[in-house]
Amino acid sequence: MERLTSKYDIICGKLGDGGDGEHTQAYYVIKAAQEREELQRQGDELDQQIQKAEREIKALEKTLQHLFAKNAGYKRSFAPVEQNTPQFEQKVLLEEQHRAALSKYRTHRLEQSELEEEMARMADQLAELEDQKARLSTELMDLSDQSEQLEDRAAQQLTKLEGAKAQVRRMLNEQRQRGAGQALELELALIEQRSTNRSLIEALTAIAANDPKLAMALETKMAQAGVQPPAFDPELDDDDEAGVDVA
Questions:
Q1: 10-24 CB burial, b ≥16 within 10 A, e <16
Q2: How many domains does the chain have?
C-alpha cells in the first residue's frame, strides 16, 4: 500500500492537479489496485478462518463420536442381564464382593470404635494411677520421715531404759547389801516392767497413727487386755525421778 501510494504521488506530481477536482486515470488505477489488495487480504483472512473452523468441526465430530460411544456403552450397562451368561455371573460375583467388602468395613469400624473407647478408658486409668503414684510417693516420704523420727525416739527410749536398768541394778545391789529384803527388789522389777511396757505402747501408738485400721486393731487389743492408752503416769514418773535421785 505504501509503495502504491508513493507511486501515485509521483504520478500526480508529474501530471499536475486537475484543477476542477476531477481525478485522473492513474488515480483510479491505483485505487482499484488498493481495493484489490484489500480484498485479497480479506480473502486470505477468511480462508484462514474457514480452515480453522474446519479443523474445529473435525475435532468436534471426533469428540461427538467418542461421546456417542460412551453413551452407548453406558446405556448398555442399564440393560437387563440375562441369566446363564458371563455378564450375569460377573454381576453376581461383583455383588457378593461388594457385600463382603461392606461387611468387612463395618466390622473394622466397630473394632476401631471399641479400640478408641478402650484406649480412652486406659488413658483415664493411667491418669488415676499417676495420681495415686504421686500420692503414695508423698505418703512414703512422710512415713520415711516419721520412721526416722520414731527410730530416733526409740533409740532415746532405749538409752533411757538401759540407764534405768543400770540404776535399778545398782539400787538392788545397795538394798541387798543393806538387807532390805525381797519386797523392794520386786517393786523395782515392777517399775522396770511398767516403764518397758509404756515405751512399747507409745511406739506402737505412734506407728499406728498413720494407719486407721492398725490404730483400730491396736485400740481393740488394748481394751481387751485392760491397758489404758499412753498418757502421763504420775506414779511411774515419780518412780523414775526417785530412781534418778537415788543414783
A1: eebeeeeeeeeeeee
A2: 2
Segment 147-151 long-range contacts (CB within 8 Å, at least 24 positions apart): 150/203, 150/206, 150/207
As given in the structure block, the three cell numbers for residue 143 are 512415713
Cα Rg for the chain, rounded, in angstroms?
62
**Among 22-26, 103-107, 113-117, 148-152, the least confident range:** 22-26
Say if residue 138 is in the same domain as residue 234.
Answer: yes
Q: In the predicted model, is pLDDT for residue 95 greater than 50? A: yes
Q: Quick one: residue 179, left, alpha or beta (phi over 0 = left, psi -120 to 50 = alpha)? A: left
Q: What is the mean pLDDT of the chain?
A: 76
For residues 107 and 207, membership in a common domain is answered with yes
| CA atoms of 130 and 138, how far apart (whole Å) | 12
Residues 46 and 99 in one domain: no
Q: What is the pLDDT of residue 234?
A: 41
Which tens digits make up the pLDDT trace of 42-81? 989 999 999 999 999 999 999 999 998 888 887 877 767 6
DSSP assignment, residue 78? T
Domain that holds residue 181: 91-246
Give domain status of residue 84, yes or no: no
Judgement on whether residues 70 and 109 belong to the same structural domain of the protein: no
CA 13 from centre of chain: 98
The three cell numbers of residue 45 are 483472512
- Of 10-19, 32-41, 73-82, which range is least confident? 10-19
Same domain, 74 and 152: no
